[in-house]
Each structure stands twice: as C-alpha cells, then as structure tokens.
C-alpha cells in the first residue's frame, strides 16, 4: 500500500520474543507498532502497561500507537506519554471528558486518537473531530484478538472520510479488528489511512504490498 500505514498489533505477537517480533514489523512494511493496553474493566482482559512499553521503546524508532482500552484514560495519559507512546488513542465511551483528554495528550506533544466501539455512531464524535489527530474505528468489539470483522462498521470509515472532506479536517482514519486478506480491501476502499492487523500479520499470511 502506497498511502496507508500498516500498524501490526503486539497483542498477537509472541510475548516471549518481543524483540524479534518488533524486527518482524520493521522488516515487513510496518509503519507503526500498535500496542493494546487493556485494564480488565473497560474490557475483560488485562494485557500490559507502562513498564513493558518503556522496556521495548529502545528496540525501534517506529512510532508507538498506544490504544488505551481503559476506564478514565485521563488518569493515564501522563504515564504512557513518559513510557514512550507517540500516538495515544482512548475510547470515547471510557470518559465523560473526551475533549479534555485530547487536550492533555496534545500538551504532552503526542498525537491524540479517539476510538469508537461498534455500538457508537460517528455522529457522537462530531464535537471532537476537529481536535483529533486519529479516529480509530473498531471493527470488532474491543477486548479480544482473532474476531471476525463486523461489515457494518466499515461504513463508518466511509462516513468519516466523507465528513473529513466536507469539513476540511485532517484526522487520519484507523481501522482495528478482523483485518485479514479477505477484509483488507474493503477497509482500504472505504478510506482507512492506518490499518491495524494482529494474527494475520504475525502468522505471516497478510498480503501487504
């Protein structure tokens, strides 16, 4: 892909060999490292936190795309910025103060992303779209890897692209969930700028060219 960024998700990597898994991202056209942070509250699973991100930060110059699947993300912006995040994406559904969280992220010199779950409409984000750098469309329900893409969610990508054009905005559109060789074309055609892929990337089957 000439214009899209591939952001492989470490959630599907071999945690016992993260150094080589990051090299795999670098050597296979990865443009960013997608890091899913789960708190066991906003989503059922628990993954990793700041110490892991801090420890792998020195292994690559690729941007760290940190996806906070956590309640009250405003409590964690500072620590993840210090740990080495370059892009910090939080869930619109996880806070009552989305605009303020974006401000906090920008104050740390980081790109601010806002994610929406399958049950959240694009219209709900209308007041913060002018402030965000990235809009992450979840095409599965957040919290587990290996799910199938929900086709109706791809329509949100096209809607966000149209809204961006009509209002002269600059946010990038990211897609996360169920991206494989069968679904990659649909999310690219809909207008995705950043594509997150987990298991399909790390098992070596993703055809990205």
UniProtKB/TrEMBL annotation:
This is Ribulose-phosphate 3-epimerase. Substrate binds at residues 9, 67, 143-146, 176-178, 198-199. It catalyses: D-ribulose 5-phosphate = D-xylulose 5-phosphate. Pfam families: Ribul_P_3_epim. Its cofactor is Fe(2+); a divalent metal cation; Mn(2+); Co(2+). Catalyzes the reversible epimerization of D-ribulose 5-phosphate to D-xylulose 5-phosphate. Transmembrane segments: none annotated. Belongs to the ribulose-phosphate 3-epimerase family. NCBIfam families: PRK05581.1-4, rpe. GO terms for cellular component: cytoplasm. Keywords: Carbohydrate metabolism, Cobalt, Isomerase, Manganese, Metal-binding, Zinc. It comes from Treponema bryantii. The active site is at residues 36, 176. GO terms for biological process: pentose catabolic process; pentose-phosphate shunt. A divalent metal cation binds at residues 34, 36, 67, 176. Its EC number is 5.1.3.1. Pathway: Carbohydrate degradation. It comes from the Bacteria. One of its GO terms (molecular function) is metal ion binding. Binds 1 divalent metal cation per subunit. CDD domains: RPE (cd00429).
């Amino acid at each position: 892909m000439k214009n899209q960024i591939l952001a492989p998700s470490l959630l599907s990597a071999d945690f016992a060999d993260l150094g080589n898994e990051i090299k795999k991202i670098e050597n296979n056209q990865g443009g960013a490292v997608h890091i899913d942070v789960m708190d066991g509250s906003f989503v059922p699973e628990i993954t990793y936190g700041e110490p892991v991100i801090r420890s792998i930060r020195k292994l690559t110059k690729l941007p760290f795309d940190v996806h906070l699947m956590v309640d009250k993300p405003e409590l964690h912006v500072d620590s993840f910025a210090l740990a080495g995040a370059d892009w910090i994406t939080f869930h619109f559904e996880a806070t009552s103060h989305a605009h303020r969280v974006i401000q906090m992220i920008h104050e740390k010199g980081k790109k601010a992303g806002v994610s929406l779950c399958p049950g959240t409409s694009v219209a709900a984000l209308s007041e913060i779209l002018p402030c965000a750098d990235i809009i992450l469309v979840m095409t599965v329900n957040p919290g587990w890897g290996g799910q199938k893409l929900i086709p109706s969610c791809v329509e949100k990508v096209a809607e966000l692209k149209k809204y961006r054009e009509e209002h002269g905005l600059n946010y990038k559109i990211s897609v996360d969930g169920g991206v494989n060789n069968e679904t990659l074309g649909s999310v690219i055609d809909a207008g995705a700028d950043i594509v997150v892929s987990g298991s399909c990337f790390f098992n070596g089957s993703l055809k990205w060219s």
